[in-house]
Design brief:
This protein has about 210 residues and is mostly helical. Helix 2 runs antiparallel to helix 3, helix 2 runs antiparallel to helix 5 and helix 4 runs antiparallel to helix 5. The protein is elongated, with a radius of gyration of 23 Å. About 30% of the residues are buried.
Length: about 210
């Protein structure tokens, strides 16, 4: 008697999309992991700042000028205004609109370059204290400088993806990369808002 042949079950995957966005994309999870790591780092910096603040009767200490608010305020306003624009870039990527994504990433690169320039001014001119002047100066540079690394990283990333969209052979999966750039951008901007309040408004309010 011949033994019955085993039945192989086959799934038809031809109808599944070849490109995924958000949590369905492995690169999105990689970006999320980076956000968690950087967010935890910024939180530790903020806690260190607050801890040092408790050891002083006045903050900044007597004889140390308070930070200037002009450039930092312009910075945070521009960053918040960029959020709807990056949302538009992400939506264009999900629609596979090549022209809009190219233009959007180019403008985002200019945005990020401006953010880097403004952050350099904040560190060198707006804080009004050197990193080695006292504990207050070290804390200010720690928090503002740590977030500065996020801006530099985003500038490199968005510029690289923009060049890819303009110059490299493109595949549908690259549109997902553009959407991930916007995801990290949201984190970069929203993480700065409480840090701006802490480092620039805090010395006047608390």
């Amino acid at each position: 008697m011949t033994a019955p042949r085993a039945v192989r079950r086959v799934l038809d995957l031809s109808t599944l999309p070849q490109t995924a966005f958000g949590p369905r994309d492995i690169m999105w999870w990689g970006t999320l992991g980076f956000v968690v790591i950087e967010g935890f780092t910024l939180a530790l910096c903020a806690v260190s700042y607050i801890y040092l603040r408790q050891n002083f009767h006045s903050w900044p200490p007597l004889g140390t000028p308070a930070p200037s608010l002009g450039v930092p305020t312009v910075q945070v306003v521009l960053m918040l205004l960029s959020l709807p624009f990056m949302r538009w870039v992400s939506r264009s990527a999900r629609q596979f609109d090549l022209t809009k994504v190219r233009v959007g990433l180019t403008i985002a690169t200019v945005y990020a370059a401006i953010f880097v320039a403004l952050r350099a001014v904040e560190l060198l001119d707006s804080l009004n204290v050197k990193w080695d002047t006292n504990a207050y100066g070290s804390a200010q540079w720690l928090v503002v400088g740590s977030h500065a690394t996020l801006i530099v990283i985003e500038l490199v990333e968005v510029a690289g993806v923009a060049l890819m969209f303009w110059l490299a052979p493109l595949e549908e999966k690259h549109f997902s990369d553009a959407a991930d750039v916007a995801f990290y951008w949201y984190f970069m901007v929203l993480a700065w808002v409480p840090l701006y309040i802490l480092c620039f408004l805090g010395p006047y309010l608390f």
